[in-house]
């Protein structure tokens, strides 16, 4: 019920989008640290 026929409840819409994107952002931050660590460890001969 974020969208009505003549109105949009932007506050609720943005809150829902934030809650939906939050786990993806957290996983990205955690995995990016591991990816950089693996790349630097693999670069040393």
From TrEMBL:
GO CC field: membrane
Record's subcellular location: Membrane
Membrane topology type: Multi-pass membrane protein
Keyword RNA-binding annotated: no
Alphabetic keyword roster: Membrane, Transmembrane, Transmembrane helix
Keyword Isomerase: no
Principal location listed in the UniProt entry: membrane
SUPFAM superfamilies according to UniProt: MetI-like
Annotated transmembrane regions: 12-30
Name of the protein: ABC transmembrane type-1 domain-containing protein
Origin organism lineage: unclassified sequences, metagenomes, ecological metagenomes
């Amino acid at each position: 019920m974020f969208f009505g026929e003549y109105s949009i409840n932007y506050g609720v819409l943005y809150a829902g989008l934030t809650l939906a994107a939050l786990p993806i952002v957290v996983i990205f931050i955690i995995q990016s640290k591991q990816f950089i660590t693996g790349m630097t460890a693999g670069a040393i001969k």
